[in-house]
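Retry 2 of 3 after timeout on previous attempt. Resubmitting structure tokens to design endpoint.
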């Protein structure tokens, strides 16, 4: 078994961690590639559990030391996890996971703490205490940064989460990372929260790529998808006749405009794009790969207009080529879209491993008050609060503007 908690003079090449809400294992793959070892992984989703078990059996590089369970986090105890992996309290230093994001996602209903899934974070904190870990880390959607807590104030949901962690003895650090800036062929922005009981702030990895092309340019979809090879006939998904006629009006990087709501400062409406009706610009990194089967379409020179298939989405997420996803096609899209890109997880993990090895002998951090968020993150919350003051009331009162036709198209990105 890999090491749980590094001891002086011990082989410190592998540091154990426990993974909750493990999904398809994207975060676990990346951390193991960075020199950690997953000792325990669990998810309540049957397809996720079967995916982890299947890959453990066939992949010699990942999950070798992991006990894998299908489990409800709200029913799990630290004692059970430690018994399963043969460890004692305080021996495993790191807890990671991805608590469900639907409660905070702009693509969902944004119920936050009113959604039972939004409160699963409490169990994450409970287990961190029962396991007595020194560090924890979780990833969530960008919307969590400005999400409203029970008081309805933008940003208060994240503040409440950080306060709960502070009460549990963890100082926290928050960062927004765009996967494209780290060599992932996808413009995926996610919030990463790092909690620490010993040591100091984590030095998150510096971006290695950029949109402007200074140094290393962003990696395009077309470049990444070269590795996929020819598709099987069963992988080719075509639009129905009505949608095909709409898509034919679009250029790459365009989507069918959805109905919007008129607002005080937006007489034309606050609109978006109709889900499942966007033609990807393959010269750029992909838009966010979602957990929904309604993925973007591509104009294939050989096959015409077709939807991105699960294998292509997994490539855009940087899963190993041999990694398999168990379940129906809808299950596969969900598992892939909900995952942390393994390549991004590896880069975070390399920084985290260096941090752990530098600070494991230090005494516990004295946590008295929260460290302030970075100015850029505070500015995003302030902007959301001002936008709510200007447009919140009119947006809630206005009906959907059905006058916007479904055939209208607009240029943009997600």
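Retry 2 succeeded. Sequence:
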């Amino acid at each position: 078994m890999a090491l749980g908690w590094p001891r002086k003079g011990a082989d410190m090449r592998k540091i154990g961690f426990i993974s909750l809400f493990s999904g398809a294992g994207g975060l676990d793959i990346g951390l193991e590639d960075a020199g950690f070892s997953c000792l325990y992984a669990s998810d309540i989703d049957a397809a996720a559990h079967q995916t982890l078990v299947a890959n453990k059996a066939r992949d010699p590089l990942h999950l070798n030391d992991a006990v894998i369970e299908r489990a409800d986090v709200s029913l799990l105890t630290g004692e059970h996890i430690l018994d399963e992996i043969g460890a004692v309290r305080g021996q495993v230093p790191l807890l990671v996971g991805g608590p469900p994001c639907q409660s905070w996602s702009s693509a969902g209903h944004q119920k936050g703490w009113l959604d039972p899934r939004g409160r699963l974070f409490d169990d994450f904190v409970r287990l961190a205490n029962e396991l007595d870990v020194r560090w924890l880390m979780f990833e969530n959607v960008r919307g969590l940064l400005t999400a409203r807590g029970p008081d309805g104030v933008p940003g208060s949901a994240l503040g409440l989460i950080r306060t709960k962690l502070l009460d549990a003895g963890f100082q926290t650090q928050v960062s927004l990372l765009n996967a494209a800036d780290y060599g992932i062929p996808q413009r995926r922005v996610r919030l990463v929260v790092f909690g620490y009981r010993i040591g100091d702030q984590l030095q998150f990895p510096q971006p290695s790529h950029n949109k402007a092309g200074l140094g290393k340019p962003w990696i395009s979809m077309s470049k990444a998808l070269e590795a996929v090879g020819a598709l099987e006939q069963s992988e080719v998904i075509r639009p129905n006749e009505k949608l095909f006629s709409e898509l034919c009006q679009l250029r790459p990087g365009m989507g069918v405009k959805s109905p919007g709501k008129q607002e005080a400062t937006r007489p034309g409406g606050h609109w978006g794009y109709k889900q499942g009706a966007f033609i990807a610009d393959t010269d750029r990194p992909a838009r966010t790969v979602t957990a929904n089967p309604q993925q973007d379409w591509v104009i294939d020179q050989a096959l015409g207009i077709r939807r991105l298939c699960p294998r292509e989405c997994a490539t855009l997420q940087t899963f190993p080529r041999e990694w398999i996803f168990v379940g129906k096609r809808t299950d596969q899209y969900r598992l892939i879209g909900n995952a942390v890109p393994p390549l991004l997880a590896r880069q975070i993990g390399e920084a985290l491993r260096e941090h752990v090895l530098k600070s494991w002998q230090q005494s516990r951090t004295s946590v008295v008050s929260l460290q302030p968020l970075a100015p850029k993150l505070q500015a995003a919350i302030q902007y959301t609060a001002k936008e709510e003051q200007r447009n919140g009331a009119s947006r809630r009162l206005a009906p959907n503007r059905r006058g916007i036709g479904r055939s209208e198209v607009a240029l943009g990105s997600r």
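Attempt log closed. DSSP finds eleven helices and 14 strands in the chain.
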